[in-house]
Write a structure and sequence with these properties.
With 220 residues, the chain is α+β, with helices and mostly antiparallel strands. Helix 5 packs antiparallel against helix 6. It starts with a strand and ends with a helix.
């Protein structure tokens, strides 16, 4: 199930009914204030697109959350591939207290991000695909090692072992969590879809068909 602010809950079977509601959100959406825009610029991992993209999707997600895994694999990755610079995806870490390894996973992603976007995306992909394995025992480095060269893996280890770098990463993750709290995030995944000066909050995971029809109505 997923939910949009101001719109009734719908089941995935009835998800196509959401499209007209999403398309109409421009007139009813919350306006993003200057402070929120500044916060977004300072936090989050840019997975695709840029500030010039006509659509921005902010995602608040927990790497140990099964629904977040499905969102990343079934929706975000296809959107990145199909829409490229037309859609900016900004991923915010929002590790939940009940998920023991979500925060360590977020640290690995942040460390890989210091090497470059390619390494960061590879680590996201490996961590989400292997979620069922490391979520049971915390063996994150096994998954991360599949995504990085030996040289890059060594660099990631060094970043995480450096007290200053680790403190910076932890502070950044905390800022992302606080941004999510200020924006009213209570469940993962939660997306904020912005276009035309408006913003729509979407909780949970819609189908890719719904997302595609919505994006096509704006950028194609």
């Amino acid at each position: 199930m997923f939910r949009t602010t101001g719109i009734r809950k719908v089941t995935l079977a009835g998800a196509l009914l959401l499209l007209p509601c999403l398309a109409a959100c421009k007139n009813e959406a919350l306006q993003i204030n200057g402070a929120a825009r500044e916060d977004v610029a300072l936090t989050g991992h840019v997975l695709s697109g840029s500030a010039a993209s006509p659509v921005r999707i902010e995602v608040f997600s927990d790497l140990q959350c099964p629904s977040c895994r499905e969102l990343f694999i079934q929706i975000l990755q296809p959107v990145m591939k199909e829409y490229k610079d037309k859609v900016s995806i900004v991923y915010h870490e929002f590790p939940l207290s009940g998920h023991r390894y979500a925060h360590p996973a977020a640290r690995y992603v942040a460390a890989a991000g210091k090497l470059g976007q390619r390494q960061m995306l590879s680590v996201y992909d490996a961590i989400f695909n292997d979620q069922a394995y490391w979520a049971s025992d915390g063996s994150l480095e096994v998954s991360v090692s599949k995504a990085l060269s030996g040289e890059d893996l060594t660099k990631v280890r060094q970043i995480l072992q450096n007290s200053n770098s680790l403190a910076e990463i932890n502070e950044t993750i905390e800022k992302e969590q606080q941004l999510g709290i200020r924006k009213g995030v209570t469940v993962t995944p939660t997306m904020f879809i912005s276009h035309g000066g408006g913003e729509q909050k979407v909780e949970g995971r819609p189908t890719y068909q719904v997302m595609k029809q919505f994006l096509d109505s704006i950028v194609k």
